[in-house]
Structure formats: C-alpha cells, structure tokens
Amino acid sequence: MKIIKTPNAPQAIAPYSQGVEANQMIFLSGQIPLNPQTMELVGNDIEAQTAQVFENIKAVLTAAKLSLGNVVKTTVFLSKKDRLGDF
Q1: Half-sphere exposure of residue 2, counting CA atoms within 13 Å on the CB side?
Q2: pTM of the model
Q3: CA distances to 2, 57, 59 from 39, in Å
Q4: Contact between 53 and 45 (Cβ < 8 Å)
Q5: Contact assessment for residue 87 and residue 32, using Cβ atoms and an 8 Å cutoff
C-alpha cells in the first residue's frame, strides 16, 4: 500500500489520506470544495464548488501520475444546504 499526497489538493482534515494505492488501484478520499492554499470553502453555487472539487481530484490523480481519463468509478453525494447547513 502506498499513500498519495500532494500540496496541490486540500490536506486531509480527518484521519484519512488524499489517496491510497493498493493492488494496482488508486482510491481517493472524499473531496469538498476547499481551496488547497487557504483551506477555505470556495464559491457560493454548485458550479463553482463542483469545479473546485474536480480540480482537487485532478491534483491527487496527477500526484499518482494519472488523469481523469483513468477514473473507472465515482460516487457523488449531494445535499441541500438548508438541510445540512455549512460544511
């Protein structure tokens, strides 16, 4: 098992890694729309936040010498802000 870590994506804010390589597969942790330099949430709308999440995912994949073209499966969880409040 190999841990994947990059300063170009938000640092893990819980006890997990940005990514892990195991058995020739890469597993990325959940991403939220954080700016990796400031660790602040970005954007006030789903479009800006989704763009930031994908930039973070691309940064971790790049650290693993991969791209979005290598992704086989994704899972996306969405919620209404009025139900969950701020992250």
Answers
A1: 9
A2: 0.84
A3: 24, 15, 15
A4: no
A5: yes
2-15, pLDDT tens digit by residue? 999 999 999 988 88
Specify the higher pLDDT residue, 78 or 27: 27
Contact, 26 vs 64, CB < 8 A?
yes
Tell me the CATH number at 49: 3.30.1330.40
Distance of CA 18 to the CA centre of its chain: 7
Q: What is the total count of domains within the chain? A: 1
Q: Which two tokens stand for residue 59?
A: 């940064």
Measuring CA to CA, how many Å separate 48 from each of 34, 44, 65? Answer: 11, 7, 25
pLDDT, one tens digit per residue, over 2-49 is 999 999 999 988 888 999 999 999 999 888 899 999 999 998 888 899
Query: Could you list the residue range(s) of the whole structural domain that residue 67 is in?
Result: 2-84
